[in-house]
Amino acid sequence: MNHTQPPAGTQAIRRALSVLRLLRDEGGELSLSAIARRLGLTPGTTHRVVGALSVDGFVTHNPHTDCYHLGAGAILLGQAAQRVHGLERALPIIEGVKAETGESVNITIRDNSESVVLLRAQSTLPLRFEQHPGARFPLYATASGKAILAYSLDVEAYLASLPEQLPPLTTNTLATRDDLALALTETRDRGYSVDDEENVAGVRCVGAGVLDDQGLARAAVVIQVPTVRLPDDRIPELGARAVAAAREVAQFLPPDRLTQR
């Protein structure tokens, strides 16, 4: 028996998951040809995969546009995952922070070298940065990434994996690995992280790690603010609020569910 062969059906499962991830990240509709092109699949394969996902409602066809989007099955699956991970109880906490501060608030997790938005309470102020759950950003350039890395067992390995000169996302992105290491030390010293327009120009953020009983970060609470509303003297206030919210959220996130990879 050849033990190097993947289990039967693995390729089909991966293709189905890739379609779901694509539609999730797209946030709208895509035609069969667009799905095939984005994923490098043949039209016939794409038709079969999308058809199978449509049977149980994970994908829905819009006859008016002849495009596909996530269906009710995906919504129900997401809702079940939120209950399992305690996010239904965490949402009122970040909604409360939004109400107090007027600013957008995220709960994020780590997925390898990226920070992923898991839950969001969007500011209702006219000037705000639009974002959605599922959005991904490099750990090194975000308040969420720093808040998680500062309390992670593999922080040294992560730093060693980076190039000496960090790829810039804005003119404010930290320049080097050493700069990031210093920022992580500062995060631990004050208890919260800061993103000073390092990921998105015109947006500053503060973040706090959601820590388990061993002091390791399982997630982060991040307050996201247009730069014009976040002068330096407001950062400690929002940092303290993020820390308090992260402590509340920690009560509801099961320690064995949201794990780093």
TrEMBL record:
The keyword Transcription applies. Residues 10-72 form the HTH iclR-type domain. PROSITE patterns: HTH_ICLR, ICLR_ED. Residues 73-255 form the IclR-ED domain. It comes from Amycolatopsis taiwanensis. Keywords: DNA-binding, Transcription, Transcription regulation. InterPro entries: GAF-like_dom_sf (IPR029016), HTH_MetabolicPath_Reg (IPR050707), Tscrpt_reg_IclR_C (IPR014757), Tscrpt_reg_IclR_N (IPR005471), WH-like_DNA-bd_sf (IPR036388), WH_DNA-bd_sf (IPR036390). The keyword Transmembrane does not apply. One of its GO terms (biological process) is negative regulation of DNA-templated transcription. It comes from the Bacteria. This is IclR family transcriptional regulator. One of its GO terms (molecular function) is DNA binding.
